[in-house]
Specification:
CATH superfamily of the largest domain: Aminohydrolase, N-terminal nucleophile (Ntn) domain
Shape: globular
Distance between the termini: 11 Å
Number of strands: 24
Oligomer: single chain
Largest sheet: 8 strands, antiparallel
Number of helices: 18
Bound molecules: 5-amino-5-deoxy-1-O-phosphono-D-mannitol
Strand content: 15-25%
Helix content: 25-40%
CATH topology of the largest domain: Glutamine Phosphoribosylpyrophosphate, subunit 1, domain 1
Radius of gyration: 25 Å
Number of domains: 3
Length: about 625
């Protein structure tokens, strides 16, 4: 949830960076992780210098402009999503300890902080904030001056031995210019390797402007960086290894590129996100080659059940996957919200394939659910967009989506890339298990190959739906209906509108309408209806057309997403947006797009910051 960046450089290298510039640039890129406050601490002239401010990063920059910091080669920076204590200046990180000589930043929740705080207070410590982080800083400061006798890395080892919960901690001390010490448990941290400078970040975007050489760190590890060295150990101080990788995107792909917002840019990135996710995963004969999967074909052939674990938008991608995988592979697929899964004694065993879906690869609820399933003997496969993240690293297999960095809090291109990856997985399983003929798989892959151009066609006609969105900026509530694969699309359309436009929005299975939700319909209530193809499954189309008539008869203002050529809906719709013809199971890759454009445009028309909606953070690393 919080964004963390650390830097150790030197003035003797050809390009000598000021630590503050590196930290601010890193925080700018990490701000999507939380924007309740921001702060930095640098080591310069034998002292710690810190600035912190509630609100967005711009507030911190103004603060620093008024009270400049000295040039420095070492520092830490933080952008916060508040957990313990509200979003105030005082609760902003860094927190100081050891009489102001030590500064610490933190992502996560320290569950046993109250007991440690009581102990430290009894010893005479005083605290300025309501945070668990200040307690960890005070503990580190105490251990540094006592048992660790001035060894900051050892002090970190001793401190983490006392902490429970999830944390990434970064600390600097005025006695050690050029040194940043970090520890991670259940919370993300990646190391960046430069030339005469090293970096730490919650993810690679924290240092992408400076290096693309990154090191994936393991669970329960401590890393100490200096300008020229990095030392990784476990929590007991035993040497440990990280896994080096090269970041396969550059800083430019995390820029707005002329669009008004990252969200809008990412919506327009979707033809590429789908095409890149398909790229190189099948041969000319339509044979899928998912070599990257680390579960053997024999083991995959044996699975008797799939359980998809995910949250939010990623869970809706899982719901789409259920329709496709069950249809193609005849394997039962359950889709469960990660945070519900492990609290109900789920039935999973070695013949269960757990498919986790996570853009960030760091969602704590999903990580914990995957760990639980692994303990029960299940095979775990991660569909993820973030190289070097925790969930794919801890899973038996990983299938990466290639959507590129997704910066806007509201997920768009990752969603389409996730759906694409689940289709590839479904087809691969069908190929292994012989559920589909090779020719059928080839045909479906060919249909998938046409999707990027069809998305582009929708985007090129985007103004049709954007103009409707602008006119609807003042509506208090919007409902979304869908059936079959249109149902998760309706849920996703509603989620987009809730999270960025702060409008009451609900998605329903259209068949459920008469069982309650229809009572919500009154004069002029806007209702989006995602209509299945008239060429699709028998009667599905006519049933949804009946649903449109039912809500319209009760005064609803009906907005319809239908397949090109579907004239049946025209008579009952105030507005129709047509998407190109495509097989029913692949339809969500198209029908979602106008709903994304609608939400983005409507929120922009209301003057909201669509990239950083209130109360939210991109990566939810607390339970
Ligand atoms: O990184 P993940 O895919 O695991 O994130 C899951 C959800 O937090 C995420 O999809 C969230 O619902 C988005 N804000 C939706 O736009």
């Amino acid at each position: 949830m919080c964004g963390i960046v650390g830097y150790a450089g030197t003035s003797s290298r050809v390009v000598d960076h000021d630590a503050l510039d590196v930290l601010i640039e890193g925080l700018r890129r990490l701000e999507y992780r939380g924007y309740d406050s921001a702060g930095v601490a640098v080591v310069a002239d034998g002292a710690i210098h810190s600035r912190k401010k509630a609100g967005k990063l711009a507030n911190l920059e103004n603060e620093i402009a008024e009270a400049p910091l000295p040039k420095s080669m070492t520092g830490i920076g933080h952008t916060r999503w508040a957990t313990h204590g509200g979003p105030s200046d005082g609760n902003a990180h860094p927190h100081l300890a050891d009489g102001g000589k030590l500064a610490m930043i933190h992502n996560g929740i320290i569950e046993n902080f109250a007991g440690i705080k009581a102990e430290l207070v009894a010893e005479g410590a005083t605290f300025l904030s309501e945070t668990d982080t200040e307690v960890a800083a005070a503990l580190l400061g105490k251990l540094y001056t006592t048992e660790a006798a001035g060894d900051l890395t050892l002090a970190m080892q001793l401190a983490v031995a006392r902490l429970e919960g999830a944390f990434t901690l970064l600390a600097v001390h005025e006695d050690h210019p050029g040194v940043v010490v970090a520890a991670r448990r259940n919370s993300p941290l990646v190391l960046g390797l430069g030339d005469g400078e090293n970096f730490l970040g919650s993810d690679v975007s924290g240092f992408i402007d400076f290096t693309r050489r990154a090191v994936e760190l393991g669970q329960d590890q401590i890393v100490t960086i200096t300008p020229d060295t990095h030392t990784i150990t476990d929590f007991q101080g035993n040497p440990a290894e990280g896994k080096e990788f090269t970041v396969d995107w550059d800083a430019a792909s995390a820029e707005k590129g002329g669009f008004a917002s990252f969200m809008e840019k990412e919506i327009y990135d979707q033809p590429a996100a789908v095409a890149d996710t398909l790229l190189g995963r099948s041969d000319a004969n339509g044979r899928l080659t998912l070599d990257e999967l680390r579960i053997s074909p024999e083991e995959l052939a044996k699975i008797s059940k799939i359980v998809v674990l995910a949250c939010g938008t990623s869970a809706y991608a899982g719901s789409v996957a259920k329709y496709a995988i069950e249809s193609w592979c005849r394997i039962p697929v359950e889709v469960e919200l990660s945070h519900e899964f492990r609290y109900r004694e789920p039935i999973v065993d070695e013949n269960t394939l757990i498919v986790s879906i996570s853009q960030s690869g760091e969602t704590m609820d999903t990580l914990m659910a995957v760990r639980y399933a692994k303990e029960q003997g299940a095979k775990t496969l991660s569909i993820c967009n973030t190289n070097g993240s925790t969930i794919p690293r801890e899973s038996d297999a990983a299938l990466y989506t290639h959507a590129g960095p997704e910066i806007a809090v509201a997920s768009t291109k990752a969603f389409l890339a996730q759906i694409t990856a689940t289709y590839l997985l479904g087809l691969y399983l069908a190929q292994l298990r012989g559920n589909l003929f090779q020719g059928q798989i080839k045909d479906i892959l060919a249909d998938l190959g046409k999707i990027p151009a069809k998305i582009q066609d929708i985007l090129d006609r985007g103004e049709e739906i954007k103009s409707v969105a602008r006119k609807m900026a003042q509506v208090p509530s919007v409902l979304f209906l869908g059936r079959h694969v249109g149902y998760p699309v309706a849920m996703e359309g509603a989620l987009k509108l809730k999270e960025i436009a702060y409008i009451h929005a609900e998605g329903f299975a259209a068949g459920e309408l008469k069982h309650g939700p229809i009572a919500l319909i009154e004069q002029d209530q806007p209702v989006f209806v995602v209509v299945p193809s008239p060429r699709g499954r028998d009667s599905l189309h006519s049933k949804v057309v009946s649903n449109i008539q039912e809500v319209r008869a009760r005064g609803a203002n009906t907005l319809v997403i239908a397949e090109s050529g579907d004239e049946d809906v025209r008579a009952y719709a105030e507005f129709v947006f047509y998407v190109p013809e495509t097989p029913t199971l692949l339809m969500p890759l198209l029908t979602t797009v106008p709903l994304q454009l609608f939400a983005c445009e409507l929120a922009s028309a209301k003057g909201y910051d669509v990239d950083q909606p209130r109360n939210l953070a991109k990566s939810v690393t607390v339970e």
